[in-house]
Amino acid sequence: MLPSAPNPFPTGTRTPLQDLRGTITPNGLFFERHHAGVPIIDPQDHRLMIHGMVQSPLIFTMSDLMRLPSISRVHFIECSGNSAAEWAKPSGRTAQEIHGLLSNAEWTGVLLSVLLREAGVQPGARWVLAEGADAAAMTRSIPLVKAMDDAMVVYAQNGERLRPEQGYPLRLLLPGYEGNSCVKWLRRLKLGAEPWQTREETSAYTDLMPDGTARQFTFVMDAKSCIVSPSGGERLGSHGYHEICGVAWSGRGRIKAVEVSTDAGATWRSARLQEPVLPRAVTAFGIDWTWDGQPAVLQSRAIDETGYVQPSRAELLAVRGTNSLYHYNGIQSWKIDAGGEVTNVHA
Amino acid sequence: MCTPERAVRCLSVAVLFLVGAAASIATAPVAAAEPLYRLGSPLADGDLVGWNIDVAADGAGLPPGQGSVAEGKAVYDAKCAACHGAKGEGKPANQLVGGSVRPPAAVKTVGSFWPYATTLYDYVNRSMPWDRPQSLTPNEVYSVSAYILNLNGIVPDSAVLDAVSLPKVRMPNRDGFTTPDPRPDTR
Fold first, then answer.
1. How many CB atoms lie within 10 A of CB A208?
2. Of A50, A215, A220, A252, which is most buried with the most CB atoms under 10 A?
3. What angle (nearest 5°) sits at the alpha carbon of residue A55, between those of residues A49 and A58?
4. How far is CA A154 from the centre of its chain?
5. CA nearest to A318 within chain B
6. In this predicted model, what pLDDT tens digit does every residue of B36-62 receive, in sequence order?
7. Class of domain A224-345
8. B43/A57 CB distance under 8 A
């Protein structure tokens, strides 16, 4: 079964969160989102160009990049359009259909700051245009502060070279930022004083508010969580003990706590967090639960190290309305009926 | 051995760490120090041909050429209408004409939502048509941009767009975008 609705311009696949355990997404199940298909690139021919407001414009081969000091870090990528249908009404059936534009991997590559120091950043540069080698030649403007902080150019994912759908041979990784800005098939970085106002940062990936204005450059993915067991599409076969387990993540740092409710938010208990708890990475949680056979509504809310608390859907809509499209992180509610059927509801 | 050369390198590494610390506090990074690894090749002017295609919001990067609304209709009918509809009404691809940014039924189009005409040129040039991106000439991109803007009532029937006139086109939703990011905003 297709996880997404049929689309004349096929653009993606979703991670089956309810079928996974632990935190690492297997590479073949990592979500995909493309803006004009998947290019087939010979790494021997691929180049990364760095130019614009730099002292020494440079062109790197993949061999050059792989000679540089490498680092490996675990980070999630979440499409900011993840869970977008939930702005309107309960839509998806399973965790995959609702929240499957989220995946987590160990990435290996080079800090972007290393490359920018090789080229030498000119005074006055504040933005970096990142361009892909796909058919859309997709572009995003990235704040130079982020580029010099923890941004990476990555060539490996979970120990193997990137797969074509994930940007082979080279991808930009901006930890905690919306997935679209992690430009795949990365071929060019151009430094400038102002953002370029590309299509993907104006007509898309901006958040329309109730007053008709749109927030722009809202890169960071706020804290969010989802119970993956029990979850939608499942039927609890027996009363008694069940471990409620799920995943939580925040683009602003580490997950500090996850709280779980089994009574539609009336009362909350702290869940166990699985170590290690890494910044801007998926953290697994679990909590004991005895199902008495009565109808129940399960919810989880993530709290990150900044103190941010994942909002309820009502709290989110009170601020953003229903046209925002991107950055939906309202609390997920799973209803369990007396027969054990688990469904997606807005409680 | 701490040779003089090595000492300089150690110093430059120390400076890099200081620069990095400063960058995380200041709003803009400080210019970088000397390169450490000397990997990557110098970029020659010719290396940029075919790559340096971006058009900025101020019009930087727009090529020579021009295009009229009438010429644009011919391009649109031949290469765009199959996906975007006879008059930009959309389906199967995005609606380009009309729409509104107001709730409850916001429809984001070039006319109702896009803040810069330069973005239209840049996107059509780099990404369209879907099946043959980067196949249009500059004159075709200028003209089809003029036609789409004309369908939205933004430029007159007589409009001819080029590197000077396109960036001056005032989009209706030019002031509709807000920065910086105000989040966290829910509590």
1. 23
2. A50
3. 20
4. 16
5. B186
6. 999 999 998 788 888 999 999 999 999
7. mainly beta
8. yes
Q: Are A118 and B36 inside 8 Å of each other by CB?
A: yes
Q: Which numeric CATH code is attached to A31-215?
A: 3.90.420.10
**What pairs with residue A269 in β-bridges?**
A260
Distance CA A29, CA A300 (A): 24
Give A213-252 pLDDT, tens digit per residue.
Answer: 999 999 999 999 999 999 999 999 999 999 999 999 999 9
Residue B104's pLDDT is what?
A: 78
The minimum CA-CA distance between B35 and chain A, rounded to whole Å, is: 4
CATH architecture of B48-168: Orthogonal Bundle (1.10)
Nearest Cα residue to A301 out of A344, A262, A251, A341 = A262
Which of these, B123, B118, B178, B96, lies nearest to A324 by C-alpha position?
B178
CB-CB: which of B48, B133, B181 is closest to A218? Answer: B181
- Mean pLDDT (whole number) for B94-99: 97
- Residue ranges matching CATH 3.90.420.10 in chain A: 31-215
The distance from CA A78 to its chain's CA centroid, rounded to whole angstroms, is 1
Q: Which residue has the tokens 């797969």?
A: A163
**B42: buried, middle or exposed (CB in 10 Å: 19+, 13-18, 0-12)?**
exposed
CA distance linking residue B19 with residue A151, whole number of Å: 16
Model confidence pTM above 0.90: yes
